[in-house]
Amino acid sequence: MVDALVIIPTYNEIENVERIIKNVLSLQRDFHILIVDDNSQDGTADKIKELQLEYPESLFLIEREGKLGLGTAYITGFEWALERSYEYIFEMDADFSHNPNDLIRLYNACAKGSSQVAIGSRYVTGVNVVNWPMSRVLLSWGASKYVRFITGMDIHDTTAGFVCYKREVLEKINLKKIRFVGYAFQIEMKFKAYLLKFKIKEIPVIFTDRTRGTSKMSKGIISEAVFGVIKMKFNSLFNRYEI
């Protein structure tokens, strides 16, 4: 019985999706993959359906009607996973910024270690980022420092999107009360796990910027993170934050 599910949101990832699927499904440990596609216009979903003929027992697809945001894509995936028997549920990008080989290290941190959340961390042992301009490195690193300062979480890479959650964590968090839809979703999930006192471990990984396709980062996403974190922490201090 396969106990691990990798959730990969996609929007116009035709250049990457076949390679990432085949890489994950060729690992020495067995994983299932759930793609949550936000109505890609480049044929991403059609390629996944084609690959499902090759991997009928291990590749699954949810098609949504529009570009509804990273956070809601993961929540859709989490709910799908919790309706089934998966014990270890992963977040992962489609663009190879996260090395599929590191899935096993995150899995082992939760399945063989004592962690309940394992984060593929760019900053726990310095700055492990490849192919980013210095301006973006400083923005990302500074954002994680800012979030760590505001929230009090002892996490170096608070905005990381490469994460393994044990089932019990997602069962405890009220997914319907998640407020953020962009990349700040990653911060909110970690903050809720932190408030619930789950054991969180950072696993050092090397993050490599995409070489194919285009980034989905925007100024609105950054603004949501900067100002939303302050409100999130403020509400938690006065018991107005629903976990």
Structural write-up:
The protein is of the alpha/beta class and 243 residues long. The chain has a single domain, classed as Spore Coat Polysaccharide Biosynthesis Protein SpsA, Chain A (Alpha-Beta Complex). 40% of the residues lie in helices and 16% in strands. The strands form two sheets. A seven-stranded mixed beta sheet has the order 3-2-1-4-7-5-8, with helices on both faces. It has a two-stranded parallel sheet with strand order 6-9.
The CATH topology is: Spore Coat Polysaccharide Biosynthesis Protein SpsA, Chain A
Radius of gyration from CA coordinates? 17 Å
The assigned CATH architecture is: Alpha-Beta Complex
CATH class: Alpha Beta
Within CATH, the superfamily carries the name Spore Coat Polysaccharide Biosynthesis Protein SpsA, Chain A
**Sequence of secondary-structure elements:** EHEHEHEHEEHEHHEEH
Distance between the termini: 31 Å
Question: How many DSSP E strands?
Answer: 9
Secondary structure tally, helices: 8
Q: Tell me the fraction of residues in β-strands, as a range.
A: 15-25%
Mean pLDDT over the full residue set: 92
Q: Looking across the biggest beta sheet, what order are the strands in?
A: 3-2-1-4-7-5-8
Keywords: Glycosyltransferase, Transferase
InterPro entries: DPM1-like, Glyco_trans_2-like, Nucleotide-diphossugar_trans
Domain Glycosyltransferase 2-like: 6-173
GO molecular function, one term: dolichyl-phosphate beta-D-mannosyltransferase activity
